[in-house]
Write a structure and sequence with these properties.
mainly alpha; 6 helices; 0% strand
Length: 182
């Protein structure tokens, strides 16, 4: 889920360079930073969870994941995307909002549990399936955004004087959409 969110954010930042607001590069840098912050928090939480057998720590894990998701969404809402990526940015906001809400619902379920044995395979519950589905959407968007925003092939145009400046803007993105890529 984190990777999808990161990809959506980065894509929005990179595409914004062609319109109003910040340049594509500024947008991409800001987005990449926000994604890295969220992913770092989620990775730390995942590592801590793997070392626990305490229900209260599992509840804390669930609540802190939700907090990280909503903080990322808040930061994303503050971005002023370039016109060229405003639709992509809006899609990212929608997907990230659904992902945060789905994880919040799942955390609500976890917070009602009385024992660690009650957690079972939480991801197979309807709430877990909804959270996984939202995460899968985020990953798809992240991968598509990464492919769209990476303009490293433009580096050959840097010295060509008649090429418009917006086409000389070289953006290299690595959102870490997939866990194995980070």
């Amino acid at each position: 889920m984190r990777r999808l969110i990161a990809a959506v954010l980065v894509l929005g930042l990179v595409l914004s360079a062609c319109g109003g607001g910040p340049s594509l590069t500024e947008y991409a840098v800001g987005l990449e930073s926000a994604v890295a912050e969220m992913n770092g928090q989620l990775d730390r939480l995942d590592a801590e969870l793997s070392e626990t057998s305490d229900l209260e720590q599992v509840k804390r894990y669930a609540n802190e994941r939700v907090a990280a998701r909503y903080e990322f969404l808040r930061v994303l809402e503050e971005f002023d995307p370039p016109n060229s990526v405003s639709d992509l940015h809006a899609a990212a906001l929608g997907i990230m909002g659904r992902l945060a809400d789905a994880e919040a619902a799942l955390a609500g379920y976890v917070n009602e549990l009385d024992s660690l044995a009650d957690t079972g395979d939480i991801w197979s519950t309807p709430l877990g399936v909804a959270a996984r589905s939202a995460d899968a959407e985020a990953v798809e968007l992240c991968l598509a955004a990464q492919a769209e925003l990476d303009t490293s092939e433009r580096s050959d145009l840097l010295g060509v004087p008649w090429i418009p400046p917006e086409l000389k803007d070289v953006v290299v993105v690595a959102f870490g959409c997939l866990a194995e890529e980070r």
